[in-house]
Amino acid sequence: MIGKLLRLTTATGRRQLIGLITTVVITAVLQGVAFVVLVPFLTSWIAGDAATAAGWLITLVVIALVYGVVFRIGSLLGQRAATEVLQSLLDRLGDRLVELPLGWYATDRSGTAADIATRGVVFASTVPYAILRPILTAFITPATVLVGALLIDWRIGLTLALAVPLIWLCYRWISRRMAAADRDHAAAVGDASARVIEYARVQPALRGVGDNAIARRLVADALRDQHAANRALMITGGTGVGVFGAVVQLTVIAVLIVGSYLALGGDLGLGSLVALLVLAVRFTEPVVHSGALGGGVAIASNTLDRIQGLLDEPALPEPTTPARPSDSAIRFDRVSFGYGDQPVLRELSFEVPAGSTTAIVGPSGSGKTTIIRLIARFYDPDRGTVAIGGAALPDLGSRQVAAMVAPVFQDVYLFDATIIDNIRIGDPAASEEDVLDAARRARVDEIADRLPGGWQARVGEGGSNLSGGERQRVSIARALLKRAPIVLLDEATAALDVTNEAAITDAVTAVRDGRTVVVVAHRLQTIAGADQILLLDESGTVAERGTHAELLAAGGRYARYWNERVDAAGWRLIPQP
Ligand SMILES: Nc1ncnc2c1ncn2[C@@H]1O[C@H](COP(=O)(O)OP(=O)(O)OP(=O)(O)O)[C@@H](O)[C@H]1O
Q1: How far is ligand 1, taken at its centre, from the CA of residue 381, in Å?
Q2: pTM score
Q3: How many helical (H) and strand (E) elements, i.e. helices and strands, does the chain have?
């Protein structure tokens, strides 16, 4: 645990921790020596030798004074080390969360990450003071007492020494059980947090369908599992401490039996017997304490592992000298990709010429959004290459890719701020004029007109005061303001009202303006207006590719797909003269 803590903190934190450990060792030894000195003091006191007793008493007072000074220094170092550990962990986790590949966030890790970044980090910062210090004392003081007991009376010392392996085995047993119970508990807490966050997020959808019994059951099950895991942790801790206390008390009884036997045989004076019994009790006191702390050590160790695990999450490879893209053309070259063991895209190859628009269509689950994620470098493909401007994304580096690409996803998240502030995220340095210009081109001005407060109206948490289509228009305005050469657009699947439909059509037209656009298209206008259409099939490969006119003329899968959609939408194409 000490090694894990030292690895997680800064050089200053390491110095403070080593200082703390040094003072703890000194105070624990001094405490043990004080207990040992009690023996000659009590023996001479009971024997009526006041002068010798006074000498030992002075020794005890000196030990107590030195102990007090070193303890105070240790307390200060412990507090400073705790603050340093907290600060350095928050800094490192903050940096890590920014560096983690975006794909890490695509799977719902929010509960686990929130638990580590809040409860875990705060607990870790208390470890130097609340766990490390008492646990070291609980081992070093009895060890000093044991050495003293062996020197004073080897038979009593040997009795104590024989108990040590039994106590150690018992301690290991408790720690292992507590570590396992804590792992289950942490998993249950992470799961329950994720479920509660998810439940809050999907409230609008749930209220829309009227019956949220299934979602409520999922949350209730997760909370019940967390409760059960918490109970198991408590029971494991309570049982362990009870068993450990009983084993330690048996040690005192063994000393009492051996001591009484020696006293009855005349080998041990009454004063020495009393003093050695006091010593045995002093030996067991800190050891009993270690039983209760064993669980804390196991939990602390697990927590430090979890924090280290998050810090060690693999990042995507980044170039030392990023390559320069020649333009904004996108190329997929025999790309295969899957989430875990589940393959999604297979040997996918296509090109999107710079400045053109490609619409991706295909059945649900065929991997359309995954293509968008690969271009934004949420993940690197398992095989094959994704390139922009002739350079593979790992050679361009995540920063450059992020600067070149403006994604507009289906589930747009808006901050609970004004519409203007939400658009400005696209380019925080942009002038007010530029922000308003981008907003108008994405027809966000109509949304501002509708809201009380206009441009200064707050959009609510996650953008809840706006409709899905409106949120996507704000997101398109962000992309326009960013002036990135590539726009990735995952069109909302939900049916849009007439106003939003027209506004999105205008916004998409505004976005195209010389940019390279890849759009997961659901609206017929977007599909028909694209320079190139890629039709994916269920197995994650390109089934057909071409312009709308070419694919319709071919009369294949795309033509069937198109005709079904046109019939469903009641659409009619007006023949061109
Ligand atoms: N983060 C993820 N982890 C695991 N599997 C995922 C993840 N994201 C998507 N998938 C799975 O990968 C497959 C392709 O998903 P993707 O979202 O790319 O499809 P899509 O064609 O965009 O679907 P839709 O039209 O329904 O949005 C699906 O089977 C989906 O369940």
Answers
A1: 15
A2: 0.65
A3: 22, 10
